[in-house]
Amino acid sequence: MAPWSTFWDRNVFVEAMPALEHFLASPFSRGAISGIGAITAIAGLFELAAAFGARLQRNEKAPPASL
Fold first, then answer.
1. 3-class secondary-structure state, position 10
2. CB 34 within 8 A of CB 3
3. At residue 46, does pLDDT exceed 90?
4. 3-state SS record for the chain
5. pLDDT at 60 over 80
6. CA-based, 20 to 30 A from 45: which of 36, 53, 56, 60?
7. pTM to 2 decimals?
8. Which residues contact 43 (CB under 8 A, 6 or more apart)?
Protein backbone atom coordinates (compact mmCIF):
# COMPACT_ATOMS: atom_id res chain seq x y z
CA MET A 1 0.00 0.00 0.00
CA ALA A 2 1.26 3.42 -0.89
CA PRO A 3 1.37 5.93 1.99
CA TRP A 4 -0.29 8.61 -0.13
CA SER A 5 -3.35 6.51 -1.05
CA THR A 6 -6.67 6.23 0.76
CA PHE A 7 -5.91 2.58 1.47
CA TRP A 8 -3.15 3.79 3.80
CA ASP A 9 -5.58 5.82 5.91
CA ARG A 10 -8.09 3.02 6.25
CA ASN A 11 -6.33 -0.29 6.79
CA VAL A 12 -6.68 -3.20 9.16
CA PHE A 13 -3.70 -2.19 11.34
CA VAL A 14 -5.11 1.25 12.14
CA GLU A 15 -8.50 -0.26 12.92
CA ALA A 16 -6.96 -2.97 15.12
CA MET A 17 -4.57 -0.62 16.97
CA PRO A 18 -5.79 2.98 17.03
CA ALA A 19 -2.54 4.09 18.69
CA LEU A 20 -0.77 3.52 15.36
CA GLU A 21 -2.98 6.05 13.60
CA HIS A 22 -0.96 9.05 14.83
CA PHE A 23 2.33 7.44 13.77
CA LEU A 24 1.10 6.25 10.37
CA ALA A 25 -0.53 9.59 9.57
CA SER A 26 2.62 11.63 10.17
CA PRO A 27 4.40 13.02 7.12
CA PHE A 28 7.71 11.67 8.48
CA SER A 29 6.56 8.05 8.48
CA ARG A 30 4.90 8.40 5.08
CA GLY A 31 8.06 9.93 3.63
CA ALA A 32 10.29 7.28 5.20
CA ILE A 33 8.16 4.45 3.87
CA SER A 34 8.02 6.08 0.43
CA GLY A 35 11.80 6.49 0.48
CA ILE A 36 12.38 2.87 1.43
CA GLY A 37 10.02 1.80 -1.33
CA ALA A 38 11.82 3.98 -3.89
CA ILE A 39 15.22 2.62 -2.84
CA THR A 40 13.91 -0.93 -3.07
CA ALA A 41 12.44 -0.30 -6.53
CA ILE A 42 15.68 1.26 -7.81
CA ALA A 43 17.75 -1.61 -6.38
CA GLY A 44 15.40 -4.07 -8.07
CA LEU A 45 15.82 -2.32 -11.41
CA PHE A 46 19.61 -2.42 -11.08
CA GLU A 47 19.47 -6.12 -10.22
CA LEU A 48 17.23 -6.79 -13.19
CA ALA A 49 19.57 -4.87 -15.50
CA ALA A 50 22.54 -6.87 -14.18
CA ALA A 51 20.70 -10.14 -14.77
CA PHE A 52 19.86 -9.16 -18.36
CA GLY A 53 23.43 -7.99 -18.91
CA ALA A 54 24.84 -11.30 -17.67
CA ARG A 55 22.39 -13.17 -19.87
CA LEU A 56 23.44 -11.18 -22.94
CA GLN A 57 27.13 -11.78 -22.22
CA ARG A 58 26.52 -15.49 -21.79
CA ASN A 59 24.65 -15.63 -25.12
CA GLU A 60 27.44 -13.74 -26.92
CA LYS A 61 30.08 -16.23 -25.68
CA ALA A 62 28.06 -19.31 -26.61
CA PRO A 63 28.94 -21.01 -29.90
CA PRO A 64 26.31 -20.80 -32.63
CA ALA A 65 23.79 -23.60 -32.56
CA SER A 66 24.17 -26.13 -35.34
CA LEU A 67 21.17 -27.63 -36.99
1. coil
2. yes
3. yes
4. CCCCCHHHHCCHHHHHCCCHHHHHHCHHHHHHHHHHHHHHHHHHHHHHHHHHHHHHHHHHHCCCCCC
5. no
6. 60
7. 0.65
8. none
